[in-house]
Amino acid sequence: MKFGIVVFPGSHGQTDCHYVFEQILQEPVTYLWHAEEDLQGVDCVIIPGGYAYGNYLRAGAIARFAPLMEQVIAFGKKGGLILGICNGFQILTEAGLLPGALIRNPSLRFQCQNTYLRVEQTETPFTNLCEQKEVVKMPIAHEEGGFVTDKETLERLEKEGRVILRYCNEQGEVTPESNPNGSLHNIAGIVNEQGNILGMMPHPERYVEAILGGEDGKKIFNSLVAWWQGGAGR
Amino acid sequence: MKEGFWREMGLSDDEYELIKEILQREPNEVELGMFGVMWSEHCSYKNSKNVLKQFPTTGPQVLQGPGENAGVVDIGDGQAVAFKLESHNHPSAIEPYQGAATGVGGIVRDIFTMGARPIASLNSLRFGSLKSKKTRYLFKGVVAGIAGYGNCMGIPTVAGEVYFHPSYEENCLVNAMCVGFMKHEDLAKGLATGPGNPVFLAGARTGRDGIHGATFASEEISEATEERRPTVQAGDPFMEKLLLEACLEVLKTGYVLGMQDLGAAGLTSSSCEMASRAGTGIEMDVAKVPCREEGMTPYEILLSESQERMLFVVQKGKEEEVRAIFEKWDLEVTIVGQVTADGLMTIKEGAEIVAQIPAQALTELCPRYDRETQEPEYLAQAQGYDLGALPEMEDYGKVLLTLLGTPTIASKEWVFNQFDYQGGTNTVVPPGSDAAVLRVKGYNKGIALTVDGNSRYVYLDPYRGGQIAVAEAARNLVCAGAQPLALTDCLNFGNPEKPEIFWQFKEAVAGMSEACRQLETPVVGGNVSFYNETKGEAIYPTPVVGMVGLVEDLAQVTTLGFKQEEDLIILLGQNKDELGASTYLSVIHGLEAGKSPEIDLELEKQVQQATLELIKMGLALSAHDCSEGGLAVALAECCLAGKMGAEIALTENIRPSSILFGESQSRIIISIHKSKIDTVLQHLKKLQVPSKVLGSVGGEVLSIAGSGWKVKVELAEMEEKYWRAIPCLMKG
Prior knowledge:
heterodimer; A: alpha/beta; Rossmann fold; nine-stranded mixed sheet; 24% helix; B: alpha+beta; seven-stranded mixed sheet; 26 helices; globular
């Protein structure tokens, strides 16, 4: 399965993701330069974390106009697999591939910390190796991670089972205390209607080795590979 | 030019005479401005250079010592790390967010200028009391500024330290350190070689910000300083990220012969330092410099401290290849001049020469001063204070909790959670332990990083304080399982023209040098920050040490927290009856008095070596040094990090206040599996390191018993104090 990692000026999660695909998953991986218009035949597009265009104006607001994004949008609309992590999630909402927006944390501070997440759906390309309601641990690192949307969209997201990850405590209880950034309904990750595009604020790529604290992030990436091998890729 | 104009440039009458002698004529205004910044203490080190010569700077591990943009040490396998610590105190005291942000930006540029990719940042911060609104404003702004810049760059901020003390009320200290990784062959230098080669300027446009910042950093803070706010530069981390990527890419081509970032004194210093180092000259046309605003004079262009700019010399004929790389990164890049053989800085505006000075006149010919020294009056009295007469307290459990809730000791989670410390996926030991550890991908090794400096020790005995700063940094690295390699320093002091201040400086550097020699950790770079005074009151003398160590095997990485119930706790080193200069005296008795703790560097070395050996043998499961708050606080920190209690029995006949909270040096607490006790004790005996079994890990309580007294504190109570102190104060 070939992964492509989008690189905008100011992105910096690309090397962490590249390392995961190349060294941990041992799957083919390539960088996709923002100014180009070719997705190089990749099977999954990763939009990594960082500060694309410095996050000036608004996180993701400029990145969505990059020439490559047209291809990414078309790819996603055709059902191609896209994973947006942190800044990548912000960019996906700005690009209209995912609903809602990510606003400033109520603390008004950048927050770098570990969070527990409850896996709400397992019939997805991103979480099929997880157990239903499994609690996984992954770090967040952002200043603008509060997921918001209008009431109607929120209801739809819930009804259609498109909330994939929710902040929770170690026991898997979704509580106000376990919500690090004021996200509505403790939302940490959502998919689009077709279910092929996931945006998530936590960083799975930073939690793939025991030496870094834990390996739960691998479940997301391994799920993608399993999904691909199990049918989508044939 | 009006009479005495040079004084406004920070030059003395004698210096002005010397300039005339060098030039054999009167300098014009532009030239005088260039001399003013280059001969400022900040750029020239004219007051400190003779003293700094004492530092040992060599060793088999040193690939680049002081004099370049950063020091570089070997970490084996053809790899190296570049690192440097630098102050940005004055700007941060005026405009905390931008002051701190550009402090990070400046030090990051120093690192990638050497050809290294920045992989970690650290910081050492000093503020007044958190009870003051002003301090909270500065603290909040500085932390946000460091976070804002570092996080955007994607460089993890992995360690640091924060002290709160009234002497920093108006003059906070912001020392930022950056560490970069490189292969030996990637080492780049700031040399303007090869006459005829073009000189490029890349990155941000030049504006009117920061003019005379270096001069401002070389004077005391006064009421007029508020008006200096416009001289504080604004940072653009996104621009710096692009500059970083473009510079590292262009260095890989081999077409770049020398590179130097524009920091203090802007274009003037970067160009003349590159020329001076190479023994060449540079001819530059300021009209070619892309400016942010119209009508900037040569003087302004030469002295602007606009951030995110880089100067470099390119092999003639390779201009287009170089240009293409910067354009790929959407950066402006311009040829502003060329290297010459005449050793002169020739500055033109179009066809007209506006300044012409021998490059070395701006650097090497700056006068050096051996300032007068005098032992300060406060010292004898403070040292002579009769601590024996102090009463013992009734409830030492309460004292322990008070100390754990003191901002200087309490958890700094509020600070480091604002830093993206995991980016780059190398952070094996995150902030909060004795030292941070980063792995080297693809190898089973890592580097350990720490930054340390207790100014109360220096205030009460600069020589010992200097020794301790180095020893403690090394001790912290050892506790993480690393062999200390080398250090960078940032020497923050008051006005060096005052004999008492210069005495502190000289003594502290002598003490540091002695410790560096004994512990074999040479100084490979650093920075001096004088004039940290407000209304004539100096800060506590604050030398800060940033140290790098090598972890040979990642399995050896050790942290402070106790690991499992029933493990035995062992103290390496000796408990002594020493309360002087302790946090206990300051917090509980309001006393900044007594003698700083003694330090025997021979013992220090033995304790460190023994600890490292026990770690390497897999016997020491946790390690933590005793520092602020003494043995009791150190034990509490081991409990807090491990989320388990301990039962301790102390047998020495030392009064409880001293044995619990005295800050005797060269002590490390380790924990071991109980089955290994004989092996460990035998080994320590063989090494002739004083040690004793303190007790065992377990339960939900930390209890410490002495002869006739006992302290018992619940883990939960300690947690409440330790974790909540700073967040609570910041809500106020």
